[in-house]
Design goal:
Elements: E1 4-8, E2 11-15, E3 20-25, E4 47-50, E5 56-57, E6 70-72, E7 79-80, E8 93-95, E9 102-103
Parallel strand pairs: 3-4, 4-6, 5-7, 6-8, 7-9
Antiparallel strand pairs: 1-2, 2-3
Length: 110
Amino acid sequence: MITFNAIHAEITWNLSDDGTLTISGTDMPNYSTNNQPWKSQKGAIQKVVIENGVTNIGRYAFYACNNLIAVAIPSSVTNIGDRAFRGCSGLTSITIPNSVTSIEAFAFRN
């Protein structure tokens, strides 16, 4: 597998060989069902680590990441966008910190 690094809006992302997508920065933008910057690598994503400092998980951010099994959300996140994890049928481990005050519609719907 190839490691990818990119900057998109206010975030930087890196997908490592072990399937860990690490996101850093400040405010993740909203996406549609097919314009996430890591879309071409969705099948390789097994774990998402959002680093401290990111305040928002954007709409459709991890839409249909079927192999995603675990997500780490820091206490800097206050909002989880509409359909952010929709279609992530393999997701079995996620801890939502008390800092999250808004979880929008269908954020975790399969």
